[in-house]
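Friendly challenge for the regulars: who can give me the structure tokens for this chain first? No prize, just bragging rights.
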Amino acid sequence: MIIDEILDFENASSIPLKLFINNENFEFSSKENCYFSYFEHTNSLELNIYQNINNNKHVNSYYKNQFVKNSFYPLAFLAVEVNIHKEKASEILALNRNKIKSECEDKLYTQILESLFIIIIKNFSSLFENDIDKQIGSLFLEYYKNDFKSLHPLDLSNYSYWKKYKLSLENNKEIEIDHLINSIKSIKISYYTNNHLRRGDSFSFENGNFIINTSNHTVNSSISQFIFSKIEDKITRLINFEYDENGNLKFVEFSLEPNEGDFISEEKYIEVLEKSKSWNRSSRKIIPCLKKYSKLRLKDEAYIGYVYHFNLDHFIEFKYPKMVSPFVVAETGNYESKYESSIILNDKLYNWVFENRYDPTTTKKEIIENYKNFILEFGQSQND
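First reply, four minutes later:
Bragging rights claimed.
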């Protein structure tokens, strides 16, 4: 749109612009002469930091005071502006100098997080003056520490204010978030349940059953993501989920209580398997593994970048027993039947599964036999 081009030009321009729409002056976001409050020398980054509890915010980025676009993941709990000094423009910026190269973003994002932690820990009391602000700053530190290896060694024992953050529930109730997290027996996320004009999520909690109601196809708040990050390793079973007629997820429910059975029922497993064969985000996929095919289970850290891992929501992750699907999906070029699946089993697959097997006693022969049995049980319905 034209207004987007104007906003991009204004951000990159050092000359003040005036824009009138229907005879009214349009107010551009002020850069305040590119003033930054903090400088972190390790990564040569200048930063502005503001607390933000409502929604994830995109990082506003500058390269030596010139605005540049980025595709960083939005940050939870904080709004951040960053001015990059250390890197050479030719190494991190696209040819037109208005965007950070995609191949440089992971490294820069990690540096931004590292610098934020250094500055926040050093200036915590001045950045977050009242109790609520301290809780929000502490939520940020707690949420991101486990996502980056370089942050793992940090001692955050003096920044546990997040535990006292009071979550507003339906019926005008409140609960301290730490007490909530330690009391959850099941968690359910219901999608498209709120008024679409309402931003964020709403919550209810009763008898150990926690419910997140969201107005979109995914959770809409940093708090929802934080809570889920705290309980994801405790999930023992996928209780249920349901899609509507358009393929949108209506709800998903997990249990945190002890479970000796399969992570997912066989009925829902077949549903997941069929759905994995109906679209082509990656040709081969990693899917849940039933106990009877435990010889195909992968170790938890097994990963291939181009292979999609089964998930239900873009913003929530959960651990489950994994295996590589024997089905490969390809586009057909046919509008009515866009994708087709085929069974492809070969030594490359067997070897990778063997190298990444969960049970070190599993043999390659057992892997081959289990794939054959899997196909006999689940291979008949392909392309139905």
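DSSP finds ten helices and 18 strands in the chain. The CA atoms of residues 131 and 161 lie 8 Å apart. Your move, everyone else.
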